[in-house]
């Protein structure tokens, strides 16, 4: 039987900060939950795929070359491929990331993602 999932339960089960926890896949997309706090990643670009951030709890910014977008609980943003960006998390945030398999690597996650 197909099982439902609760994102808050899934992200709360990922007890370590900055640890990507895969909750499922959708076609060739990874669905990872993550908790982060006091963290600013380097600007980076995903050349081959778009990326989606969904804010489950808390708030954070996604900075771009021309400004920033602030996300709070329930907000999501899709970042088109080829767009320079970086997440900025000042307080504890819990989020879902959706991206094509193979997009995440140590360089664009501050060294915290391990394939």
TrEMBL record:
It comes from the Bacteria. InterPro entries: Cupin_2, PKS_Associated_Protein, RmlC-like_jellyroll, RmlC_Cupin_sf. Residues 40-91 form the Cupin type-2 domain. This is Cupin domain-containing protein. The lineage of its organism: Bacteria, Bacillati, Bacillota, Negativicutes, Veillonellales.
